[in-house]
């Protein structure tokens, strides 16, 4: 597939998708979001891909939705086209894990896109923010919802009301990112993390993603029940037999996704 605003490389079962609008700091316009969703869906369908890494450039993961493209739209237009709804739906429907590798700015829609991934590895130069308030709007794809679940009400209010940026260290402290690495090592670390995921049984990987995401939607008791039932169901797989046998025989497991 030929893309104009992203690049896609598949190597060793990992699809590396890079946002590629350098002149606009990877601002998320309609074309880029369409191509991104198409590439993610293709990776989800592709048996060779077991994990996805989503990255931007050194300077910007993404500086937000494309302000130039949005600025002249009316309420009726954005309401009728239900702006950003299909992006949210298409990305959250991806079943394989997506790791966000964030260097530089992840602002507005860029921060929201990173939060739609399954975990975020940040370079030490990363800056996160929801500065939509400076544009006379509010976040539109999770900045008031997902960010609040990540960092709690007080910090989310602070970010959304003042529009200030959070650096990588604060983002790790607040639970927004899973780890911070030196900027020069970001892609190496993200690809290594993806490689680790790719080595597991794909059945367990899909089950983990489903189960962790359920924790946002269910009560604790219902979530515990969901997790327990998924855990029980893993005993129907050959990979459970192989994984446990390999442990007992002190050897590496050979998972076959069966
Ligand atoms: N949209 C369009 N173009 C942008 C954007 C953007 N969000 N951000 C940067 N650019 C462009 C600039 O216009 C500039 O283009 P040009 O050279 O043609 O003038 C180029 O990228 C470089 O930017 P700067 O010259 O501003 O670079 P600086 O290093 O001086 O500043 C900043 C970098 C701080 C990142 C600055 O560019 C900035 O503040 N950008 C806007 C950040 C922002 O407000 N983001 C929120 C956008 S609204 C939003 O995301 C709503 C979310 C709704 C859901 C989205 C779902 C995907």
From TrEMBL:
Q: Where is the signal peptide?
A: none
Q: Which UniProt keywords apply?
A: Lyase
Instruction: Kindly report, in one word, the top-level EC class recorded for this enzyme.
Output: lyase
**Catalytic activity, EC:** 4.2.1.17
The protein's matches in Gene3D superfamilies, at most eight in alphabetical order, are given as: 2-enoyl-CoA Hydratase, Chain A, domain 1, Lyase 2-enoyl-coa Hydratase, Chain A, domain 2
Q: Which GO terms describe its molecular function?
A: enoyl-CoA hydratase activity
Tell me the protein family, please: Belongs to the enoyl-CoA hydratase/isomerase family.
Q: PANTHER family under this entry?
A: ENOYL-COA HYDRATASE, MITOCHONDRIAL, ENOYL-COA HYDRATASE-RELATED
Q: Which protein are we looking at?
A: Enoyl-CoA hydratase
* Organism from which the protein derives: Ruegeria spongiae
Please name the taxonomic classification of the source: Bacteria, Pseudomonadati, Pseudomonadota, Alphaproteobacteria, Rhodobacterales
């Amino acid at each position: 597939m030929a893309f104009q605003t992203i690049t896609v490389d598949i190597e060793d079962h990992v699809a590396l998708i890079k946002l590629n609008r350098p002149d606009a700091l990877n601002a998320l316009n309609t074309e880029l979001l369409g191509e991104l969703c198409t590439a993610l869906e293709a990776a989800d369908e592709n048996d060779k891909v077991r994990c996805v890494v989503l990255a931007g450039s050194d300077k910007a993961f993404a500086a937000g939705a494309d302000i130039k493209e949005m600025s002249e739209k009316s309420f009726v237009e954005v309401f009728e086209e239900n702006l950003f709804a299909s992006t949210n739906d298409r990305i959250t429907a991806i079943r394989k894990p997506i790791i966000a590798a964030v260097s530089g700015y992840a602002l507005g829609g860029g921060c929201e896109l990173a939060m739609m991934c399954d975990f975020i590895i940040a370079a030490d130069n990363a800056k996160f923010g929801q500065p939509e308030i400076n544009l006379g709007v509010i976040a539109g794809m999770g900045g008031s919802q997902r960010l609040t679940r990540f960092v709690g009400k007080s910090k989310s209010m602070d970010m959304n009301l003042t529009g200030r940026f959070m650096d990588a260290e604060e983002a790790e402290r607040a639970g927004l990112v899973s780890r911070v690495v030196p900027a020069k090592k970001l892609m190496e670390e993200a690809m290594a993390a993806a490689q680790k995921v790719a080595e597991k049984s794909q059945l367990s990987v899909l089950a983990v993603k489903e189960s962790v995401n359920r924790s946002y939607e269910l009560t604790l008791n219902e979530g515990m029940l969901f997790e327990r039932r998924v855990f029980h169901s893993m005993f129907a797989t050959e990979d459970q037999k192989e994984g446990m046998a390999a442990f007992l025989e002190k050897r590496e497991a050979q998972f076959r996704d069966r």
